[in-house]
Amino acid sequence: METTAEQVIRVAIIEDLRDIREGLATMLNFTDGFKCVGRFGSMEEALRSIHRDLPDVVLSDIGLPGMDGIEGVRILREKYPQMTILMLSVYTDNDRIFDALCAGATGYLLKKTPPARIIEALREAVGGGAPMSPEIARKVITLFRDFRPPERVDYDLTPHEQRLLGMMVDGHTKKTAAEEIGVSVNTVSFHLKRVYEKLQVHSKSEAVAKALRNRIFK
Questions:
Q1: Alpha helices, DSSP H only, in the chain?
Q2: What is the arithmetic mean of pLDDT over 171-177?
């Protein structure tokens, strides 16, 4: 039976290495039920153009030139909350795995994953699953099993800063946080800058990951 247009899974690829990017696109376009609707060499290019033909699922590298894949995932999820995103990376360290999942990635595959498994993982993700390479799944289980945050780590955040950080953990943007608190976006930006300085981080995704590790939000 032929696949109908409604059943086709539309995929965008964010990968700086041309051979890998084009190889994935070719694999998708020659697999029944899949279509590559976007291929981007950087996260900046994807953020500029992905809206022209929104995919069902994004397959993104982490080590990209310019903005990395983790920060890009956070922005994509803010702009397109229903978008499914899978990381496809060579990195196996706990920090990147944890940060990618906290930023909103649905799953995490290694680049050595066989093509047939990538196709299967894309289907799983669109169907509501959270596919991971076996090596990554073991690390995630160990990471959360051994997760023992300190009794109290507040980094000298004021109650207002802790509340704002908690709102970021809950998925607020600067605009929605400002509306809920009743202040301007510029005021929220000012306080977030102070939060980032105290936590020694440089982005919302890093702040959220650190907050979850240490339970420093209210």
A1: 18-29, 43-49, 69-79, 94-103, 115-126, 134-145, 159-169, 174-181, 185-199, 204-214
A2: 85
